[in-house]
Amino acid sequence: MLPIAGSGPVERADAARNRQKILRAAAKLVATRGVESLALDEVAAAAGVGVGTVYRRYPDRGALAQALLDEQEREFQQAFISGPPPLGPGAPAEERIRAFLHAFVDRLETQGKLLMVAETETPMARFTTGAYRLHHSHLVGLISEAEPDIDAHFRADALLAPLAAAQYVYQRENGMSVEQIKAGFDQLLS
Questions:
Q1: pTM of the entire structure?
Q2: Fold of 10-59
């Protein structure tokens, strides 16, 4: 089978099988023992592959955490790009911004600790992923539509800053409720 132009290299069948084994083993470890158990050597043992196989594909825990989050990130992106309003198109920009922030908080509630590993394991990882750039770009577009006279890039960064997973986990572990965090975003938007 010839690769499609621009699609990148084709993954070998054995590499694809190993990737799936690694991801299944990592997901099972996280589900049964928590994010703290996400050690690459333990993942390799649980997957039945060599440690080198894991390290070649995932050089650190952050890269492995990103891979574990990939499907949920795709679903989140699909929801705000083409899902129903107010998160998706069809609602006023102000409503879409609020819906985006609230949906992001919901995502942090279920995936915050894993997102924290993905964002903090490698310096600046949070800002260099395609996901962050898309989130930022999405907010810039909505902010520009809602308030054309302000610096939309700065406002997008300012709104995304409290959505850093480490910040969210810290707030939740110190007694702040999901409702308080969402209300805080509502206050920022008013």
A1: 0.84
A2: Arc Repressor Mutant, subunit A (1.10.10)
